[in-house]
Amino acid sequence: MSLDIQDLFRRARVLPVVSIESVNDAVPLAKALLAGGLNAIEVTLRTTAGLACIEAIAAVVPDMAVGAGTVLSPADLRAVAAAGAQFALSPGATPELLVAARTSPIPFVPGVASASEVMAVLAAGLTTMKLFPAAILGGPAWLKALHGPLGQAMFCPTGGVSLDNAHAYLAEPNVLCVGGTWIAPSDLIAAGDWPAITARAAAAASALSA
Ligand code: 3PG
């Protein structure tokens, strides 16, 4: 596995989580985010176009580190890697996915929501996780509490993260980056409002840069 996912997340600071309905919107969206200063993206498999969008961004926008989200099965993990995703995230961590991660050509970032799940992921040999849904679970206080007993676990919290609260997450020593849909919400993508998305990306990049 050549990509250092912790390094990528640390440098990114903010990971826009996007759901794209039309493959035609994938490349303009990636370019709009890049223009705002963000160079990593999580394209979810929540839409039928998701996989093709990953493929398009990987092929046409090489400066964008494209990750796949909502990876729910080993088959999903294989498919997104074949499509050109550089990393993959899941809202959870099934035993099957943790086994598949061992032989995956790209880093897999499982989702966790409890100390036991963090321990299962660590036991599988992974130290980078998505905390989901972060705000409902307790937000930065959850991360602070887990840092003591499970300090080797590093997180990308998503779910309820916004420009207003992102700082509090990034201040925790076990947070690499934050993720969220607020930068490129589905209605702005569907409207093709690339200037608005660039403005949101620029606001996040300037407010949250290290
Ligand atoms: C995710 O998949 O990471 C979340 O759906 C993002 O949650 P948000 O819409 O609260 O940012």
In short:
This protein is of the alpha/beta class and 210 residues long. The chain has helices spanning 5-12, 26-35, 50-60, 74-83, 95-103, 115-123, 134-137, 140-147, 166-170, 186-191, 194-208, and strands at 14-18, 40-44, 65-69, 87-89, 108-109, 111-112, 128-131, 154-157, 178-180.
Descriptive labels:
3-stranded parallel β-sheet, globular, 45% helix, alpha/beta, 11 helices, TIM Barrel, binds 3-phosphoglyceric acid, 6-stranded parallel β-sheet, 210 residues
Q: Can you summarize the main beta sheet?
A: 6 strands, parallel
CATH class: Alpha Beta
Counting helices, strands and paired strands, the structural category is alpha/beta
**Could you tell me the radius of gyration in angstroms?**
16 Å
Q: Percent helix among the residues? A: 40-55%
pLDDT < 50 stretches: none
Order of helix and strand elements from N to C terminus? HEHEHEHEHEEHEHHEHEHH
* Total number of domains: 1
What fraction of the residues are assigned to beta strands by DSSP?
A: 15-25%
What average pLDDT do the residues reach? Answer: 97
CATH superfamily heading: Aldolase class I
Strand order of the largest sheet: 5-4-3-2-1-9
Gross geometry: globular
